[in-house]
Amino acid sequence: MINERRVVETFLELAQIDSPSGDEQALAERVAEKLRALGARTQIDALFNVSAFLPGRGVKQNAKPLFLNAHTDHVAPARGIKPVVAGGQIASDGTTVLGADDLAGVVAILEGVAALVESDKKFVPLEIVFTAQEELGLVGAKGLDLKNFTAKEGVVLDSGGPVGAIVLASPTHNLLDITIRGKASHSARPEGSVNALKIAADALAKTKVGRLDRDSTANFGIVRAGQARNVVPDKVEIVGEVRSRQARKLERHTRAIKQVFDKTARGTGAKMEFRVTRAYNRYEFKKSERIVQRVAKALKQIGCPPRYEMTMGGSDANVWNAKGIKTVVVSVGYEQIHTTSEYLPIAELVKAAE
Prior knowledge:
Elements: H1 4-15, H2 25-37, E1 41-44, E2 50-54, E3 66-71, E4 84-86, E5 89-91, H3 100-118, E6 126-131, H4 139-143, E7 153-159, E8 165-170, E9 172-181, H5 196-206, E10 210-213, E11 216-225, E12 235-244, H6 247-265, E13 271-280, E14 283-284, H7 290-301, E15 307-310, H8 316-322, E16 326-331, E17 343-345, H9 346-353
Parallel strand pairs: 3-6, 3-7, 7-16, 8-15
Antiparallel strand pairs: 1-2, 2-6, 4-5, 5-17, 8-14, 8-16, 9-12, 9-13, 10-11, 11-12
């Protein structure tokens, strides 16, 4: 049986352990300690990913394990979190994020496992991973060695909104890094210069961004250029992205953006580098697939009718699916993540643990 008091106490304890992306060691060591207390065999790798293996009970020796995952890192500002409990929810004090993304998933797994161990219920072996640096581009998941894992199906507890959502599809994500090199001069003598910033601005103005179609988006988030107001800029660096749940659309949109930049730079005397890096690959499940059915059944058993969603975001599930573990993402109740207004209804955290 889920212990609500323990759920809240565990969340409050872990939230006050600083764990910004790239500095997860203290939190990793604490959750590993909690898992060992529950009878799990644990290990922490160089990235501070925590892996845990808990034997099943009352099932066949060759029963297939279930994979469970959440991440321990938080986006900034994430140092000195002071969680506040009021009105049936946990919130930050307004000066930091709360870190419920994804401490809600971490705590739900810890409490769910504790409740199983304390009960007399049968359960399959569990393979648990708490990843680091998820917010920096799924770094922990990409770097985790899965040689000791045998699970073929799993659940990532890392989506917002009330418990009940099952994410059936996630996009492929291309990272764009564009460099335009021109020729500098004093702004009072611009003749013979090649203004890289002007070329970049022209290309950006011609490029379609935002919602491209029902499956695709594009964005440019960073432009770096210039040395001084009286120097014609000779170098511009542009950082952007393209996402799509359809591979053909992704390649078409990426190619179209490159063509705009190529055409704009042509004949100007500038040189352009257009680099595309794959951040992660898509996945998609049908409602009829076994792992989706297992999760839907579990949700119904706790009185939560399943909701099926598609997302334009990525998660560790993109990596696990690419590595051969069929993994879906489920919601754990957090709201307004990545802001200082982040909060978590306690009732939803309890449901997530169930």
